[in-house]
């Protein structure tokens, strides 16, 4: 059996690795580079039980456990480390605690820590780009093939029901099964098959070189500004980089993943906010100003499973803010579904693409 995976983000990489471990032939087709989009620009934060009470809970718990095991199973260093997480707020001018020392010594006065929301047992982090590349390299080392190119369509049999491959840059790559894992660009696949809409939600981020100065404290803060509050997230990583993100917005998704650029004003505002958090976040320590689009669905849950009304077509996307966390269990589930026809570790029925109405393809042709 040969499976073509469309997209070399974290979901495509994990699916490739779990399929290859079963001896299934895998070709990953990627338009830009491995982890070129959100999978290379995310924070990388992982939480075991923050999806409790939602249909994502079992997937997140399974994935959190696999993340902890992978450093023993795959070569490479992607900075997996447990960490503590805190919530709090940044006191605005005039607030009585504006000049109060922070409970965490590496933060500026006025950064008020409210509570600990994750412990070394329930929270962790990876460097998402290094993680995705390591998993992809492990799949390649096991015999998977990486094919640079843009997927432009799906091939079907004479009845039009069963996938027989994909069109890539005018050529054809034959396959017994096709997995759409193109992140927010999975939207374009709705032209080729019956798929619900996938949207892209943009977030800017700045990465600082903080070396060993920032401890393993993830921060989820409300930043008070002009009478309103903005959520800002800070993720110090094991390789000495600290990722800070806030201010997500709705922006048109560029057709080419390589054309995603940050909004200048949003980056400037994020930089000002970051400087208020800690003296570590000085401009000369900036190593990246970037933006990426999270893949989001109408109901906020991913699409994981068989594409309706087709044989041999699968989709795994729409992971929103938890794509790095949930990639390993998604890859494992996709491999089980394709190889055995059912999943064993996680019930993926809440993520069945058939739960949502398919997108009208004429809306895409109008773009
Ligand atoms: C600022 C930010 C911070 C985040 N922080 C976290 C976090 O801390 N923890 C967490 O769990 N998640 C986080 N996320 C979410 C996470 O990054 C995403 O959910 C995840 O990366 C999505 O992975 P993906 O593989 O589905 O898509 P992508 O990473 O978008 O990959 C899709 C790939 O498909 C390729 N592609 C597109 N079209 C084609 C085509 N036609 N042919 C071939 N290839 C194609 C693209 O080039 C791309 O490489 C964050 C996201 C953002 C934006």
UniProtKB/TrEMBL annotation:
InterPro entries: FAD-dep_OxRdtase, FAD/NAD-bd_sf. Residues 2-337 form the FAD dependent oxidoreductase domain. Pfam families: DAO. Gene3D superfamilies: D-Amino Acid Oxidase, subunit A, domain 2, FAD/NAD(P)-binding domain. This is D-amino-acid oxidase. Keywords: Oxidoreductase. It comes from Bradyrhizobium canariense. The keyword Oxidoreductase applies. It comes from the Bacteria.
């Amino acid at each position: 059996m040969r499976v073509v995976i469309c997209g070399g983000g974290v979901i495509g990489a994990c699916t490739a690795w779990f399929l290859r471990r079963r001896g299934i032939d895998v070709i990953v087709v990627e338009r830009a580079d491995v982890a070129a989009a959100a999978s290379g620009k995310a924070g990388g934060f992982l939480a075991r039980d923050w999806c409790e009470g939602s249909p994502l809970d079992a997937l997140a718990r399974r994935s959190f456990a696999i993340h902890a095991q992978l450093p023993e199973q795959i070569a490479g260093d992607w900075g997996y480390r447990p960490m503590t997480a805190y919530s709090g707020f940044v006191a605005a001018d005039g607030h009585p605690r504006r000049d109060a020392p922070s409970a965490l010594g590496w933060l500026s006065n006025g950064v008020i820590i409210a509570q600990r929301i994750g412990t070394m047992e329930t929270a962790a982090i990876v460097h998402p780009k290094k993680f995705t590349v390591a998993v992809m390299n492990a799949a390649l080392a096991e015999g998977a093939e990486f094919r640079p190119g843009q997927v432009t369509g799906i091939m079907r049999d004479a009845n039009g029901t069963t996938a027989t491959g994909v069109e890539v840059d005018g050529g054809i790559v034959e396959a017994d099964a096709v997995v759409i894992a193109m992140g927010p660009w999975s939207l374009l696949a709705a032209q080729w098959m019956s798929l619900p809409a996938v949207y892209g939600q943009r977030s800017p981020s700045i990465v600082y070189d903080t070396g060993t100065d920032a401890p393993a404290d993830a921060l989820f803060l409300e930043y008070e500004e002009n009478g309103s509050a903005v959520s800002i997230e800070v993720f110090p990583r094991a390789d000495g980089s600290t990722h800070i993100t806030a201010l997500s917005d709705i922006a048109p998704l560029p057709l080419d993943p390589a054309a995603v650029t940050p909004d200048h004003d949003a980056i400037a505002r994020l930089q000002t906010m970051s400087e208020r958090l800690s003296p570590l976040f000085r401009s000369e320590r900036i190593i990246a100003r970037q933006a990426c689009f999270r893949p989001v669905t109408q109901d906020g849950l991913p699409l994981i499973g068989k594409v309706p009304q087709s044989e041999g077509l699968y989709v795994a996307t729409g992971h929103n803010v938890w794509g790095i966390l949930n990639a390993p269990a998604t890859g494992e589930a996709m491999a089980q579904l394709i190889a055995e026809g059912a999943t064993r570790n996680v019930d993926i029925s809440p993520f069945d693409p058939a739960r949502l109405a398919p997108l009208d393809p004429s809306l895409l042709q109008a773009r």
